[in-house]
Write a structure and sequence with these properties.
This protein has a six-stranded mixed β-sheet. It starts with 7 loop residues before the first strand and ends with a strand. The longest helix is centred in the N-terminal third of the chain and has 14 residues. The protein is mainly beta. The protein has a single domain, classed as Hypothetical Protein Aq_1857, Chain: A (Sandwich), CATH 2.60.300.12. The protein is 13% helix and 43% strand.
C-alpha cells in the first residue's frame, strides 16, 4: 500500500472553523469527504460532524478537520482553505490530483 500524504489545512481555514464553533457554542469537526457525483465525476462534501474512530484527524488549537479513509487518497497533497469573495464565503479545496473541475469548484475528475 502506498503511503498517502494527508491534505494541509491553512491557518485561515482553522481560524474560520474556530469562529463557527464559537458561534454554535459547540465543538464540531469540519468533515471533508469525496463522493461520486457532480458534473465532473466526484464532488466534495464539506459538513460539520463528530469525528469517527477511523478518521484521519488534522488539528490546530482546538479546531479539527476530519477525513474518512475512503476519501483520503482523493485528497492526497490537497490544501483546504477558507475564502471570502464578493459571491460569498466558503471552504475551498485546491486538489493537485484533480485533472479537471467544474466552474463552481465543488466537483472534479481524476
Amino acid at each position: 500500500m502506498t503511503l498517502t500524504l494527508p491534505p494541509q489545512v491553512t491557518p485561515r481555514a482553522f481560524a474560520r472553523l474556530t469562529e463557527i464553533n464559537a458561534e454554535l457554542g459547540d465543538t464540531k469537526a469540519l468533515r471533508v469527504a469525496v463522493d461520486g457525483g457532480g458534473c465532473s465525476g466526484f464532488q466534495y462534501d464539506i459538513t460539520l460532524d463528530d469525528p469517527a474512530d477511523d478518521d484521519v484527524i488534522l488539528k490546530s488549537e482546538g479546531a479539527i478537520v476530519v477525513i474518512d479513509p475512503v476519501s483520503l487518497p482523493f485528497l492526497e497533497n490537497a490544501v483546504i482553505d477558507f475564502t471570502e469573495e464578493l459571491i460569498g464565503a466558503r471552504f475551498v479545496i485546491e486538489n493537485p490530483n484533480a485533472t479537471s473541475s467544474c466552474g463552481c469548484g465543488t466537483s472534479f475528475s481524476m
